[in-house]
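Annotated sample (chain length 522).
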Amino acid sequence: MTTRPTVRAANALIASGHHLATAAGLAALRDGGSAADAAVAAAAVCAVVMPHRTAIGGDVFALVYDARTREVTAYNGSGAAPHALDRERFGAAFPDQGAGIATVPGFIAGLADLSAHHGRLGLDRALAPAIAYAEDGFPVSDRLAAATAEEGERLARDDEAARVFGPRGRWPRAGEMLQQPDLAATLRTIARDGADEFYRGELGERFATAIASIGGLIDRADLAAHHTDRPEPLAIDYHGLRVFGQPPVSQGHILLEELAIADGLDLASHERGSAELVHLMVETKKLAFADRDAHAGDPARVDFEARRLLDAGFVASRRRALNAKASERIEAGSFMTPADTTYLAVVDRDGNAVSLIESVFSSFGAACVVPGTGILLNNRLTGFSLDSRSPNAVAPGKRPVHTLNTVIVLDGSTPRFVFGTPGRHAQVQTNFQLAVGLIDFGLDVQRAIEEPRWYHDSGRTLKMERRYPEAVRRALGAKGHDVLLLGDWDEVTGGAQVIAIEPNGAFAGGADPRREGYAAGY
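Output written by the structure step:
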């Protein structure tokens, strides 16, 4: 039994991180909109009603399947570090808040490009629900109320953030209405005049002037230089299916390397949820993360070609490095040659699909709102390394490596699965577990989402949801893992959404009870 039923629909389906976003996306689909229209509408609503996870001052990544061309396109809507950045200003550590730790917001351009390239309804229609929730307000959810209280000390240090998120002189309680009129005005301007108004117009000038007044470095030149990248997506074959992942600066290559290594391990021969299966997957994860730490960076600034991580010879060498016992420290492989987030999935009646993830990085991002704009800033600059030897070292005009990644799986030339999850470094681990559950074990989407999860950070410590049987946990301990128990449904492991396209053409959707997600269709 699952905590929720699988949602099934014949025409279209959306699963997002908040029920109001799902409702907005579903309305767009019913109005004849495409999967991209629904994704833009839902993502924009999330940016209003889930400021602890996303905002228009953050970033967005997406994979889009076009049913007409039968091609998958990757969208990298992340921004670069300001050109005026001085690495020495941070010393030994990044600050925990403030306008000075924001990269250029890529969210606005990303949604506008999705709408222009794949939408039918226009950006103004897609943004209308978000504008209404910002202007008229929305009832604060239990999770947002808890997050606001938890981050209250950081938010209180910023006058504008305190005013926006604590309009009553205190943080809102669940069920109370929260209005953001400045954000509504900003969204309305973008809906009317397009994304260029923010990056190259009067709105951008006001943003740059206001951010400078509170210590930020993003200027008009940084905004004008921004564009949404459309790099070629990464893909591998796995058990007869084609799995597409997000290319750098996303770390989607980790999931694909995990699956490429696992492809030679016959995971389905092990009992689902067994210690043997978990051990193999955890040790595989360690190999892929070690390779990320050693090699990954902004490919526009460092010599990093993620496809080399997926080369058959390299993958075979990594597979041979798997240990029978839990590894404390994994060395990266050598080439043969010299936060908080929310995710949504959509499929429409024409067979188009969007896999989209958006974020401000930490909870409430930089805990800083740009005066007069309502724009909550990301703190993505802290995703850089302060070690000058790292390929991900902080530098002006460079983009940090992102945990954000999305997945589309094709069967032949048509989608079979669309899925993803928030959860920072848990993302590619949870996506790995979802892929194995859906593909290797043939699980129903909701069942795959609700399976107990593990999460590995470093060393031999392995965090596992308490629902794993004690016998499994003991067996893993015998293999050298130091098992640390999480809650039964722990959101540190993410908040996944999954859509499956069934052989008969119907859609099946699921959403994670660990967070606030909901799936709906018609």
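Annotation: The radius of gyration is 22 Å.
Annotation: The first helix runs from residue 19 to 30.
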